Amino acid sequence: MDEILEILANDARLSAEEISRLTGKKAEDVKKAIKHYEQTGAIVKYKTLINQELVRDAGTFVRALIEVSIVPQKNVGFDAIAERLYSFPEVTSCYLLSGSYDLLLVVEGDNLHTVSSFVSSKLAPMENVRRTTTHFLLKKYKEDGVILKQKPKSKRLNISY
Question: Can you tell me whether residue 113 is helix, strand or coil?
């Protein structure tokens, strides 16, 4: 991957000037590269990683990973069904998989009832859906390469001899 993309993937808040200093490239060249990546779709969105456990009431927010086995549609394969599924507002991510299941959905809701209602009333009844398996996410330790819970700093004083 291009070093500009690697730097932005790690910290999207850096300015073109800061990236320029890190890479040794001219700031104007960095700006052009970033604009090119945005226009071609290589850079889709700038995002802040938030530790949801610290900002949401854990009892009122649910995230589930749902494995979905489907019958692909003739002449369109998995894409048309995936598009229909990721169009639901409850679905935050959708991935095509190899293995026993075809798609993996990340579904979010305000509570267990919201997610279970999505599965029972919207997902399971779909014509091409064979079966689903729902896994409720209990706790996140690491996301996008970032450890979410930092160890508390020791309050003990360092002593050296």
Answer: helix
Chain centroid, CA 56 distance in Å = 17
Report how far residue 106's alpha carbon sits from residue 10's, in angstroms, rounded to the nearest whole number.
23
Whether residue 40 has pLDDT greater than 80: yes
CB contact set of 57 (below 8 Å; sequence gap of 6+): none
pTM, rounded to two decimals: 0.77
Provide the CB-side half-sphere exposure for 29 (13 A, CA): 9
Q: Is there a single domain that holds both residue 30 and residue 62?
A: no
In a domain, 150, yes or no: no
Structure tokens, 138: 């209990």
Per the structure, the count of domains in the chain is 2
- Of the candidates 67, 57, 65, 69, the one whose C-alpha atom is nearest the C-alpha of residue 136 is 65
The domain of 20 spans 3-40
Distance, in Å, from the CA atom of 152 to the CA atom of 6, rounded to the nearest integer, reads: 29
Provide the sign of the torsion angle of the four alpha carbons 123, 129, 133, 139, taken in this order. Answer: negative
- Residue 145 belongs to some domain of the structure: no
